[in-house]
Amino acid sequence: MKSRVRGFGLVEIMVALVLGLVISAGVVQVFIAARGTFASQGSAARMQEDARFVLSKMVQELRMTGMYGCLGTDSYTLAPTAPEISRTTTVALNNPILWDSTTSTLTLVTADIGTTGTSPTWTILSNCQTASQLFAGARAPAAGQTAFPLRQLFYSFANNTLSVRSQLTATPQPLLQNVIDFQITFGLAGSPMTYVNNLTAASAAEVRSVRIALTLRDPDGRVRDQAYSVVAYLRNRL
Questions:
Q1: 54, 67, 98, 238: least buried by Cβ within 10 Å?
Q2: How many whole angstroms separate alpha carbon 79 and alpha carbon 49?
Q3: pTM of this structure
Q4: What is the b/e burial string over 100-127, where b = at least 16 CB atoms within 10 angstroms of the residue's CB?
């Protein structure tokens, strides 16, 4: 008696192959979508981190704009040993924040406490009681004195790049690329405070806050353009 040979028929095998291909295609699509989502989220995170770094740096420097020691903004005197400090320096210190809308250049004279960081443009030494003197370049404090390094910085926007340089360097250093828009507006003293796009030497003394807005573009096109903004209040004028 012959026994029957059991197995899969051609139709069953073809159905199994089709089902396998469908499942495999679904898994591949899920993998591709997950990888694309991961890449776009990474691009968005990098753009956000770049914007956070630049904006926080500029806010810190804006908040310290016009801070010339512990005795007030205009209490310093020129050091007798610093004849190289010219009238141009005095003009710069009297106008610690300026904006040139033609060249999209923001000029700041900002300060921080300590002796670390880049070489200062000027240094104020003060005993924080009776005297403050202004020196050119770096200057170490004597006993009982505090050093206030002052740096004149120039932020410029051109060719989708935000750059910065100090008064001591001629070549701007790229700070952030892929910037498609960079806007500065200034809040002038008043009730209510009004914001303007243009700033002159006469109105610079009325600035109480600065709004910075920039828009970044992903060079790989994974995410849409991202806009960021922040407002910095000048602590020495409030």
A1: 238
A2: 42
A3: 0.79
A4: eeeeebbbbbbbbeeeeeeebbbbbbbb
